[in-house]
């Protein structure tokens, strides 16, 4: 499993940043017993999600622990990626459109990342063909920092 890094995409090249890494929107905490958000998003991510919603309708994210594109956050039309007992809902964003945007992670990956706050960001470049942003010439990535979950 991959441990948290600044850019979770393994291309070997430094991506061109399209936003500041700070969060402009925090997700509502969904992990049982927690009251602090584990997931935020940058302005660039919010802007791209707004555009993608107009094309695909309500969306969802899933962060797995695979290698290469499998380690990138994947964006799908809501419900197109089936979650189950091996996944954990980290948070739900309340978007300007009024839609909720759930952010899921595999439970196995969560064990490695449970002490981190994740910020969903966007950079130029093509990501996975399965994630809905791929045709836009952009890709989502995760920036992380340690957090106190105590």
Task: Describe, in plain words, how this protein is organized in 3D.
- It is built from two helices and nine strands; from the N terminus they run βββαββββαββ.
- The chain has helices spanning 43-56, 107-113, and strands spanning 25-26, 28-29, 39-41, 59-63, 74-77, 87-94, 100-106, 116-124, 138-146.
- A hairpin with a 5-residue loop joins strand 6 and strand 7.
Fill in the keyword field for this structure.
150 residues; alpha+beta; five-stranded mixed β-sheet; four-stranded mixed β-sheet; 9 strands; disordered N terminus
Oligomeric organization of the protein chains: single chain
SS strand fraction: 25-35%
Residues in helix, %? 10-25%
- Overall pLDDT level: 85
Can you write the helix and strand succession as a string?
Answer: EEEHEEEEHEE
Helical segment count: 2
Strand order of the largest sheet: 2-6-7-4-5
Question: How many β-strand stretches?
Answer: 9
User: Which value, in Å, is the CA radius of gyration?
Assistant: 14 Å
Low-confidence stretches: 1-20
Q: Give the CA-based shape.
A: globular
Main beta-sheet annotation: 5 strands, mixed
Distance between the termini: 24 Å
